[in-house]
Every structure is written in structure tokens, then in C-alpha cells.
Amino acid sequence: MGTSLAQPAPGQIQPVAPGTRTAPRLQTLALTPPLPEVKTVEVLSNGFVRAAHAIILLSGAQTTDGRATQLALLAAERTYRAAPDLLEVDVSVYRAKGYAGFGGPLPLLTLSVPRERLATVRTSVQTDQYDRIWINPQIDTPEVIAPPAKLLEKVPVFVGSRAEQLKQQLQQSLSHARGGVRGGLLFQGPSSRRQVALTFDDGPHPLYFPLVLDLLRRADVKATFFLIGRNAVAYPYFVQDLVRGGFEIANHTFHHVRLPSLSTLQIKTELSSTNTLLTQLGGQNVLYFRPPGGRYSTRVLNIARQLGLTTVFWTDDPGDFQNPGVETVEARFGKRLRPGGIILLHDNALDGLLALPDLLKVARQRGYTVTTVGALGR
């Protein structure tokens, strides 16, 4: 699209906020007997249960669907052998050449094996009856080439003329004063009830996602998940888990790119392709959109409205993606909690995961109902 090939494709390098601390290294498992193709098996706990994620790297001669499937099944079985207490084992199989971590080229195959499915997974996969496997069709996903931005996701940032900025300031002021959707934007809900919306950005991610869902189910809390299209492509069963569980799915663009600098066609593609994908996967109409980094413009808002989307921001950002420490996340959350608030967390942030039970407990103790964006103010 007229962009230098030296610039990385969106999603290949996930944006990192300035001042972000390095996340602690996760525990790893050794498989017996070992599988040479397994790069690592990471294990994580949410305080109640543990999950694991195995990453497999295949050389060019091995990158067939059959070989990828065989190794994914072996990795899942041996991971459970090493840690029988696991809630779930996720497996991602990549080409070794060009592998760049989660934000790089999509996997060749992904597999999710909840503990209760372990006994039947091999037979189900071999007879094409297993619903928690994705094999990359090697069809190019929509691409919008843009350099990754290193921007702090702290407050919404409107990009536009002085007149447009003044209009946005007025809309924000009215929204914060009265609550509710105004001009296709939602900054906070009505302040008449002690009710807040819980939202998670950037998902779905293997390893973290099952643990977040487990905590929400334990607390009997529903939330809204703003999903990245390219992530949903590779882990479609996680999207279906959300819909079956009564959670709300929403649009966070296809590649997690900052939108104001893109062309009108590129913006439409980022939003419409994600809408189509999520609707196909979950059978749920997508009604809400959150711009990555909180960066938006009049053009972005108009395109979102044309697609039937309400643009949603937040009032309470504990900064879990910066790895500030669990205590800091909890303190920030408690300080900013207010009626009609919209809480921003991320489904792959360790501090947010570990703090979540206490965040929900604090909200409950203060008399708040925690719900979805769609239910806020109903």
C-alpha cells in the first residue's frame, strides 16, 4: 500500500508504554520424555487453578498439518503428565523461521485441551470432531501496514483541529457529568447507581485467558472483552467460550493499530473485518469499539458510527499492562472506582490477573454491581 517494506506489519510488535516494567518470568515445565520441537511450556496460576501454554517451533520440512497436529497432541498429553492438576493446556505451533513471539506471524496451528477433554481429545481430533483446534488456512488476513506506536494507554487522545477538539471536550464534559452515550461515544455510565462496567482489552491470549475466565466465573461477574481480530483468528474457541459464558465481545481493531493516521479505507477495514469475524465466531452482534491507545479522531468516530459501533473509553485504568505490581494496581483501582465507571484491564497482564479477585472483592464491599458495557445503566 505504498509503505516501505522496512516497516513491520501491525501486530508483529505490540505497543509498549513508556516506563513499562519487565514482567516477571513465568514458571516453566520440563516434559518427559522431552520433545525437541517444544520451545517452552509456561505455567501460570490465578490463585485457584493453574494453566499451561506450550510453544512448538517447526522447521520447514515439518510444517505439515499432520505433523503439527501430532506434536500439539503429544505436547498437551506430556504437559498434563508433568502437571496433572492443570485446568487447561494451550498449544501454539509456529514456523521456526520468522517466529517473533505472540505478536509475530500467526501460528500454524493452535490447540486447547481443558482437563476434562484430555481423555477424548486424540480420538476427537483424528475424527475431525474436536472443536478446540485451529489450523491456519494460510490465507492472508487483512493487512494495514503501519509502524507500531509506543504510546501510554492512560487517557483517551483526540486527534483533530482546534474546533474539533473543543467539541470533543464538551462531549466529554457532558458524558462525565450526565453519563451515557453521547454522539456515538461512551466515556462513563450514569452515576445514579453504584454500577461499573469491567472491560478487558487485547485478547484473547492463550494461558491467561482461561485463568481470567475462571476468576470471573467464580465471582459470578460478566465483563466486556475488546478483542483484537488477529488474535481471535488464531484462538477462535476462546471467542466462543466468551459468548457461551454470557460475556460481551467487542471490537479492538484487527491489528491493534493507532487509527487516526490511517486512510479511510484502512480504518474501515480494521473495524469491519473485526466485526465480521467476531460475529461469525460468536453469533453475537458487535456493538462496541475501543480504539487502541485511546487515540481517535472525528473520522474514526464517523466510520465507527457508520458500522453501528459505539466508541467506548474508560474512567478507571489501573495500568496493569505496565507491570507496576499487584498492590499498585489494587490501590489505583480503589482510588478511581466510582458510579458509572468503566474499568480497563488487559487479558494478558500478570498484575491484573493476580489483582482481579481483590478488585472484585473491593467493588462488592463498596456496594457496586460489576457488569458489561452493554448492561451499564440499564
UniProtKB/TrEMBL annotation:
InterPro entries associated with the record: Glyco_hydro/deAcase_b/a-brl, NODB_dom, Polysacc_deacetylase_ArnD
Gene3D superfamilies with a match to the protein in the record: Glycoside hydrolase/deacetylase
Record keywords, A-Z: Hydrolase, Metal-binding
Pfam families: Polysacc_deac_1 (PF01522)
PROSITE patterns with a match to the protein in the record: NODB
Annotated ranges, domain NodB homology: 194-371
PANTHER family assigned: CHITIN DEACETYLASE 1-RELATED, GLYCOSYL TRANSFERASE-RELATED
Annotated protein name in UniProt: Polysaccharide deacetylase family protein
Lineage of the organism: Bacteria, Thermotogati, Deinococcota, Deinococci, Deinococcales
